Structures are given as structure tokens and as C-alpha cells.
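Pilot study result, target chain (690 residues):
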Amino acid sequence: MKKLNIYTIVAAVSLLAGLPLLPACNESGEALRVEMTTGPDLSKANVSYISNRSPLKPLSFIKLPVGTVKPDGWLRKYLLLQKEGLTGKLMEISAWLDKKNNAWLQAGGDHGWEEVPYWLKGYGDMAYILGDTAMIAETKVWLEGVLNSRRPDGYFGPVNIRDGKQDLWPNMIMLWCLQSYYEYSGDERVIDLVRDYFKWQLTVPDEDFLETYWENSRGGDNLLSVYWLYNITGDEFLLDLAHKLHRNTACWTDESKLPNWHNVNIAQCFREPATYYMLSGDSADLKASYRVHNLVRRIFGQVPGGMFGADENARVGYIDPRQGTETCGFVEQMASDEIMLRLTGDPFWADNCEDVSFNSYPAAVMPDFRSLRYITCPNHVVSDSKDHKPGIDNGGPFLAMNPFSSRCCQHNHAQGWPYYIENMIYATPDNGLAAVIYGPCHATAKVGENSTEVRIEESTTYPFEEGIRFTLSLDTASTFPLYLRIPGWCKGAEISVNGASVGSSLQSGQYARINRIWSDGDVVTLTLPMTLGVRRWAVNQNSASVSYGPLTFALQIDEEYRKVNSAETAIWDSGWQESADVDAWPSYEIYPASDWNYALKLDDSLPLDKSLKVVRREWPSDSFPFTAENSPIYIEAQGRQIPSWGIDRYGLCAVLPEAGTPCSEVLDDIKLIPMGAARLRISAFPVTDK
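Predicted structure:
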């Protein structure tokens, strides 16, 4: 009888289990095990990194300590722009970050309530990621103020009474700042402060707990921090507090309605039931988060870019792609996607995070990161300082690029890219690593049951190219699994290890799990073929959006930038320090300098490459691809103008014209660029087949 080798046995077991096993051999003849899976083995426990303690359900992915994952390429360029732009300079110009009489630095201070922690949670994490000593020192100034604000009863931070009750919302944000600082420093004062604060929360009667608007909506942020401390200390009282937080937080589990329709609240709070599910174990809680996400997209999210049209609040009848999203909404959705990914392992959340990160968020800020706009829309053809209410649900100059407007987004924008970077590479319960959100980066982490240190370098210009190269460096060979996400949009993905192909039967929307003995210098190449795609938005006049891989494309509109006085065009709730040079921080209005009212020519009877041509060009010398001039990829297309489609009475891009609206007889050549590189854009097009 022929003796079966171990690989034959493993293959047979895998086939019986219904798991695709893709075989290949390296030069020494060693079999490579590559399995498709929906997530890591949750029956294991990571020996190197803290994860959920019982009775919490296990995390699918474990975030590495802040500063472990470091950006390269265009991602590092983005952080450096943030450092020299708003994020890094806000403490010098923002009235809310003025240290004199600041509520976070001295008892009885009169400003900085929400803005300080909003800014610090991005600024501090960016400091740790970059290893910037000056930024770290600035971060510690604020955190020392926080640590020194601790009261005998356990409360910390500003005393902010609203409707006769203490508002805990700013403390929820600051808890995240403290968590990052503890990950970076190991300062045990953080644990002492947070433990005492949570004991104080337990003493507050339910009728006085989480009663004001923001804290009531956003109690899920507090809940995550309770889990964080529980996983470190195992203090049983924290589980009681977790239940208390859930029952006093706004109900995001209702099947037919939401507690409110505020843009940022939805993006931030839909995850609360899934968070509570980690304790309750009730699948209805998990399903509720998916249901809210799907409900909002079904009604208000029939637009490209991964978001939904809510301006300030989602409104019945306002579903056109000219409705926008707060910059706060973009970064909070990215954070929610990252959290949902860790909780569930579902690759869908990584797909959505990349969609928002690549297509929606970049256009909300100027390329130099020195100003931003409050609201950015999928179809956005005027970016001025006028009041466009009720076309948008905000009264004031909410569309201009202003460094001082509005104070929430001015500070909260800071978290977007730092949090993205922290969530690119995870530890897994089975002592492996997972690359789940892609881009150029590197990380040093511990793997295997012996906690072997490995450096993994991810080399790519993704999302602008198909190839991602992972190089592993380690002193001692180690066995551990490496998970690679296969995006839902990708067909025909391929993986090779040290040049040996492991096949191409890789399932979209799953993970490829490579388990082997890894050695120094091993190289894994992931190829994600990008193809042209078109999404049709039936409820929005059957308009069309063009994609290529994870990128959505928009009409390239020539952009005319007009410098305006920031003090004269700022939103009413803005403010700046007396020493700030407003002239050095100008605002910009952006106007179209070319026609934008085009219907895209598409013939559904023909392959897309007959109507659209993808063109590549050199990578930009400054490594910043999110401008029309720098984009390394564009699409040649054709379109016809729609003369009746113009600016409406509110000064906005008019809603999409009905199908069959007369078009020009002239067929023009047009260029499409990545949506994230277009500060003015049409990304949901009327369609003509002529």
C-alpha cells in the first residue's frame, strides 16, 4: 500500500471540510498550505497580545499597539502633510486649543470641551506612529493635564453640566487618547485613572446617566473603553458597567427607526449593538448593526464613495448625490469599519473602509492639509462660502475650504489616516498576522507560540496598482499563519510565495490563509487584478459610477481656486487664537473652470473597454497621488452635455436629470480621474447610449 504523505492527508481533510486548499511547492519541495477562510480560528488564544477575556466573545483580529504599524510611501506622505498642516499646527491657531484657561489643563477652564480630545486622539496617535519627539512632548502636556484632573470621587476632566446633568461625551473621546498613550508608554497612572472613573460611573443613577444628546447617542464609544480595561485588569465590576452603558445608550437596535438621523451619529453609533454583542452573545445585537448600516445605505446611500447623503441630518427626499457628508462623518465611518472588522472579521468592513478612505475622504481636505470643508458631496461642482440651506441641511458657509471651520471637523479630521494605518496589519488569535487594509507600510510584531519577532514590509502603491509585495524578516524560522484579504470587488486574485504560485482560485470576500515555516527573506506577492466596473443607482435616475478596482472615478473638472479671508468666511462657531495669523491660513473657494454637466456615454451591449480606456502614467515625484495633476491613473471616456442641467436656486449642482433628458448632439472626449483626487467632481453620471 502506498504511504500517504502529510500534505495528501491535509488536502483530503480540507476537501472533506469544504475548504479550498491551493497547493504549491517551494524550491526545496516544501508544500505550501493556502486555505480560503472567512476568518481566523477563534478557538485559539494569542500568547503575545491582549485580546478579549471571557465572557466576552473572542475578537477576530487584534489591533497591535499604536506605533507598531508604520506608514511608507504615499501614506507616510499623508501623515507628514498632516503634521505640517492643520493637524500639526492646530494648537497654535485654534481658539479651542489655546492653553490659557483651557478646561483640560486647569479646573474651571472655559473652553476645549470637545475639541481637545477630538484633535488629540489623532494628533497623539500620529506622534507615536511617526516617533516624533516634539509631537510626543506636546501630547504629554495635554495628557498630564488630564491625569492631574482626577478627582477624589473618580471623575476626571472638565465639569460640563447640561440640563442639570454631567455630560460625559468629551470624556469618551479622551478615554481613547488615554488608551493609545498607555499602549505607547505603559504608564500605569492611566489604568488607575480609568478604573476609578468607571467605578464613579457605576455610582451615577440610571436616570442621570447618558441623558444628554451626544453622550446618549455615542455611549458605544464608552463601552469599547470598558472592554479595553477589562481585558487588561479582569475587574468584574466592569461587566456590570458594560450592561449599564448599553441600557442607557440610545437604542440602535430598533427594526424600523433610528434614534436620530444625524450624519456623524449614524456613522459612529451603528456599531454599538455589535459592540454589546461581544458581551451579550445575542446574535440579534450583531444583526442590528448590519441592519442599520444597510438601512441607511438603502435609503440615503445610493451614491458612490461608501457613504450616505445626510449633510448634517438625513432628510426624506434628499437622496441625490449632490447631498454631502461631514468630514467628521468620513473619519467616524472609517473608525467604525475598522472596529467592526476587528469584532466580526467580516472582510466587507475592510472593503467599505477602503471605499471611504480612497474615494470620499481625500477630497474633503486641501492637498496641503491646511484647510478642509465641512461637507463634501459625490456630485460637487461649487465649493464656495455661501449659505446653501435648505439645499443642504446647514445654514452657513459649509462648502468652502476653511482652516477654522467647523470646529468639530477642524479637530476630528485628525484621526482618519492614523487610525487607518493602525488597522492595516493585525495579530490573530492563532498567533499569526493578517494584512487586511492595504497600502505601503511596515510593522514589527510577535508571532507563533514562541513569540518570535518578525518584521513585515508591505511594498505597493495600492490602490493605484494591482501588486502588493510582503517581505518578511526574522532571526529564527517560525511557523505561523499569514492572512491576506481578497477584496469583494476582485476576481482572479493570485498569490505567490518566493516566486512559487499557489494558484489563482482565491475567493473574493474571504481571506487567504498561508500557514508554513517562515524564514528570513521570504517574499509573498499578492496580485489583485483590477477591472473596469459600472454601478447603477436605480433610485437616483439610474445614474452610473465607474470603478477600477477599489477606486471610483469622477469627471475631471478644471478647478479655479480663489483665496478668500478665513475670518470673513468662517462658520459662526469657529474661533482662532489672538496670535494666529489669519492671512497665513487662507480659505479657498473652488469654482468650475470647465463644463461639468455631462452624461456619460455607455452602451450596455458592448464590453466596458469599448467605451472606457484606462491610462496609466508615472508615479508622482512627491508621492502624493490625490490631485488631478498627480493621479497616476485616469480613464478616457466620452460624454454629451445636458444643457438643462446646471446650478439650482440654492447655488448647488442641480439634482440628476431624469432619464431621457435631451443631450447635446456633440460627443465630447472627457477624462475621469479618481474620485478622491477631485475636489470638484461628478461621480454619479446621467447616462446616454448614443
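One observation from the pilot: The chain has three domains: 22-46+428-527, 62-422, 532-557+594-688. A full batch analysis is planned for the follow-on phase.
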